[in-house]
Amino acid sequence: MKMFFVLLGYNFACIIIIGIISGLLIAAIPSAVFTPHKISTYHDFKFEDCGRFYDKYFKISVWKDKLPQFSEIVHKGFSKGSLKGIDKAYLGRFYLETIRAEFCHRVLILCAPVFYVLNKSSNVGIVFTILYIIGNIPFIMIQRYNRPRIKKIMTSKAYKNKFVD
């Protein structure tokens, strides 16, 4: 039983270290890098229906604000907890930061096999690899839920009339 708790602690420490390092590295990448191109997986897919898919099938609006944000944990970065304004610059930054966050969680999923290696290819390694992948998916879903909603605000006629260039 003692070995179980040692492995558990070891793996959770690795989760925290990998998360902090990748979060800090990705936070250092200039925002311009995250500007989506015409062909991009960061655009919303038709089935997502402007984010409604995530609310209809996963009730995301109920639980999304209960998950931690990296920017709140390290007290730096851009908080995506709630809208703090509606001007063009702020919403544009918010939009790009949802892409950065989604990218970060995709990178974290790619790091998942590290747990298999760290646990010497054991069943514990398989379990933590799978849990790590599953644990990052809700964060990607939140970005994919929020981004089209922000885009909808920014492209609405009322919004464009309010902020004439």
Q: Compute the CA-based radius of gyration.
A: 18 Å
What would you call the structural class? mainly alpha
Number of strands: 0
Taken in chain order, the helices and strands follow as HHHHHHHH
Mean pLDDT: 86
Shape: elongated
Q: Beta-strand level of the residues, as a percent range?
A: under 5%
Distance between the termini: 65 Å
Please work out how many helical segments DSSP would assign: 8
Structurally, the number of domains stands at: 1
Low-confidence stretches: none
How is the main sheet built? none
Helical amount among residues, as a percent range? 55-70%
Walk me through this protein's architecture:
67% of the residues lie in helices and 0% in strands. The protein is mainly alpha-helical and 165 residues long. The protein has one domain (2-162). It is built from eight helices and no strands.
Structure keywords:
single chain; 8 helices; 165 residues; mainly alpha; elongated
Produce the secondary structure layout.
Blueprint: H1 2-27, H2 52-58, H3 60-63, H4 70-74, H5 88-110, H6 113-118, H7 123-155, H8 157-162
Helix pairs in contact: 1-5, 2-7, 5-7
Compose a concise summary of this entry:
The protein has 165 residues and is an all-alpha fold. 67% of the residues lie in helices and 0% in strands.
